[in-house]
Write a structure and sequence with these properties.
The structure is a homodimer. Chain A is of the alpha+beta class. Chain A is built from eight helices and eleven strands. In chain A, a hairpin with a 2-residue loop joins strand 10 and strand 11 (about 220-225). The longest helix of chain A is centred in the middle third of the chain and has 27 residues, at about 130-155. Chain A binds a DNA duplex through helix 7. Chains A, B: Keywords: DNA-binding, Transcription, Transcription regulation.
Chain lengths: ~250, ~250
Amino acid sequence: MHPPILEGNLAQPVIRRLNAMRQLSERGIALLQQAIQDGLHRARPGEDLATEGDPVDSVRIILSGWLCRYKTLADGRRQIVNFVLPGDSCDACVYLLSVMDHSIGALTPVTYADIKRPAFEQLLASDRSLEEALWCETMVSSAIQREWTVNIGRRVALERVAHLLCELYERLLPIGMIDGDSCLFPVTQMDLADATGLSVVHVNRTLQELRGSGLIVLRDRMLTINDLKLLKDTALFSADYLHTKRHG
Amino acid sequence: MHPPILEGNLAQPVIRRLNAMRQLSERGIALLQQAIQDGLHRARPGEDLATEGDPVDSVRIILSGWLCRYKTLADGRRQIVNFVLPGDSCDACVYLLSVMDHSIGALTPVTYADIKRPAFEQLLASDRSLEEALWCETMVSSAIQREWTVNIGRRVALERVAHLLCELYERLLPIGMIDGDSCLFPVTQMDLADATGLSVVHVNRTLQELRGSGLIVLRDRMLTINDLKLLKDTALFSADYLHTKRHG
DNA sequence: CGGTTAATTGACGTGAGTCAATCTCCGTGG
DNA sequence: CCACGGAGATTGACTCACGTCAATTAACCG
């Protein structure tokens, strides 16, 4: 059903991302690449990689594509709680808990590696740099989650949307997905609404305001940030919480 | 300055909490108790245990008292992103990142154990059950953070405040801090506002509504939940995300 | 060319914020 | 014993950012 997966080096974004956290050893990289090769999968847009309530027994590392983590209330209200980008891992450790407390849906076609728990534990145990890098990634993901709470709780709509765009820009940058000041942006206004806690209508108007000030161009799934500095100021954005800087 | 700390068994809430995640071994408990004894500290209400931007080099395990994690925007807006209760650990692993991305403030007098990184790593390495339990605790904390995003993003004020009360109730229960249907509740309306993304005035009115429906009594730092079932229904609350059930 | 999903607009309603005054505790000092 | 001050809780009046509803347009796809 799926075509064979044979692109040049699928593990590239993962390695770049983890390397930004901790210098990976040659050995660690090799082990990781092997594990990824052994568990390649694909998902289609709209497909759920995991659903709230599902048992968890493996870790997924995203190689290409965009996804989102989301939760749904009984009456249908939906909140996207995070985006998942290439190089991110889904639940590097949620498997310590038995059950998913949220769902993970693909926004685009997605390639990922599914690593079963035993293989994953072996991987962690076999290389220290890899273990630390993966834990770091998990910690950063928590930090992002905290910032989202702040974003939704204390920023007004314009700041809020601007902040989300800044975050995505900063996260796409280190994995080589920013071209100049532009990037693919496969997020519908409905997704943006569910991610920011706003209504679709208001997101639409907010985007128009950002466009109107010449800060961004967003059309045809392509985002261009004309004035990053000003966008960050608008959003009260500081990248510190992304912990991108390598540390000693 | 501080009186000596010699209460009966300070480590009790920690052990209860971790045991709810993973059955701790005798050995693990002993090691943990020793580590806690070696690093006892106190903090006073209003004091910050850590401040955004601080370097991190130790783990703090809370033995008694309430704290909150919070972030502040440049113009003073504040968002509490989580409460920290006895048995919780502060950043069991944020120390993998070099710098705090948020602050941690004491709401009440607090007793905690400060365990330096080397001692903490040794602790984790020496007992498997302890290591897993502490990672679980970290994962649950992430799950809570996600639920807060949903709470603030998609629930209306009444649901939102009710949800927070339900969560705190469920978290206080396993550490023995619920007496009947009541508990100490040292959280001001200003704190509640900063935790729910509402204004103080609106929190006040929302509490009155909850009181008016006979769901809760809240006065003199004492919270009584008269009708937990109904409060949960009001909040669209499900405790699943707290992953309290032990698993096999 | 229909059918669908996403984006956009306008009109209107409202939940929640802001401002500002008042009230209630408390602890402190004279 | 009481004036004073400060923190927290409470109220009322008013405002507005954002939501809802509903219709229209644009883009895409077989």
